[in-house]
Every structure is written in structure tokens, then in C-alpha cells.
Amino acid sequence: MSRPDLGIIGAGRVGTALARLAMRSGYRVFLANSRAPESLKLVAEVLTPGATPVTAGEAASRGGLVILALPIRRFRALPVEELAAKVVVDAMNYLPEEDGIFADVEEDSRSSSEIVQGFLTRSRVVKALNHVGYGELEEESLPGIEGRRAFALAGDDPAAKRAIAELISDLGFDSLDAGPLSEGWRFEPGTPAFGGRYTASGLRRALDAATR
Length: 212
Fold this sequence. Notes:
Elements: E1 6-9, H1 13-24, E2 29-32, H2 41-46, E3 52-53, H3 56-62, E4 65-68, H4 80-83, E5 87-90, H5 96-99, H6 103-106, H7 112-119, E6 124-128, H8 134-139, E7 150-155, H9 158-171, E8 174-177, H10 200-209
Parallel strand pairs: 1-2, 1-4, 2-3, 4-5, 5-6, 7-8
Antiparallel strand pairs: 6-7
């Protein structure tokens, strides 16, 4: 089955782990960071062999799906025009204890993904792939197996959510629709779902148990 090309903006531990999983499932991956593609030469050779280093704009324009795996404080540097009309996976988290206080998120009552959607007004943002540790991605991937670990997703566009549910399945996990993007807070840092190992039924209970 033909799969869309995948753009990943963010070449840290999460981005590179997702790149490896995606390539194993037959995706062509375009990997970018905040610097020039030349800065990713060693990363591509050692950590993500087969991925193509590109600029962030190229990752956005060439990816049929685009994953944001960079620190959330950098979201205003994203290539807005190239991401227009794209299905964009927000895999970012606001972790002030690690990244410092970020007023854009701290002073806004919306979930972090709603803030990103408000910036990428012409993109179709789906919150997903954010509530699991990078080391667990490859350790717990089980392509084609039922009852495996589940990942939540939230978004306002049904077609975009279906596309990301297919991506999650290809990566080796079940998916659980948590509802609209405004419900993405249910699997942000500090909630029962964040970092927990759940099948779909357990994840649903964890989402329901979340409090603000």
C-alpha cells in the first residue's frame, strides 16, 4: 500500500525515533531541524539512515503528513506557508521544568495544540504522539498486533484524524480518538495518560480521569 511522504520538523530523540519507525513501515522521510540540512548529515548517516535531510520548509512542502517534534517554544518559527492545507501532527509538549517558562502557553487558557492551531490557521492540526517516551516508541512498536499500546489523538478535522490514526497503526500502535483539539489537554504533561502504558480501554479511562 502506498504511503504518504512524511516530513518531520525536529531531529532530536523523538523526531529521529519516529523517523526510524516510519521508514521501517515504508514511509519516505524528510527530516529537518532549525539549522541547515548540512547540520543533519551525521544524524542521517548514523541515527536515521535513509532519511533525507532538508530545511524545515522543504520538510513541510514535501511531506504529505508533517510531524512537529521540536521544542514548543520554537513553534512561531515554523514555515506557515508551506504548512498551509497540510495535516500537521503536534507531538510537542510544554515542559517548563525542562524548557523554562514560555509565556505564549503559560498565559493562554487554551491547550498547547489549540495555540499551535491558532498560529497555523490554514493547517489541519492533530495532537498525537506526544504522551510516550522516545525510548518506548521502538521498544513497544507491534505492527499488525491487536490489543497493543494505544496513543491518543485529538483534532477538529475528521479526515486528518483518520490519516493520523493510520500513521499510528503503521508505526505499531493502536489509536484512540480523544475528541476535538480542545480535548488535547487530557493527554498533556501532568495527566494520567501522559507517560502511561495503556491499551485503548485503559487509555480511555485515563483520559476520562484527567482534571485541570
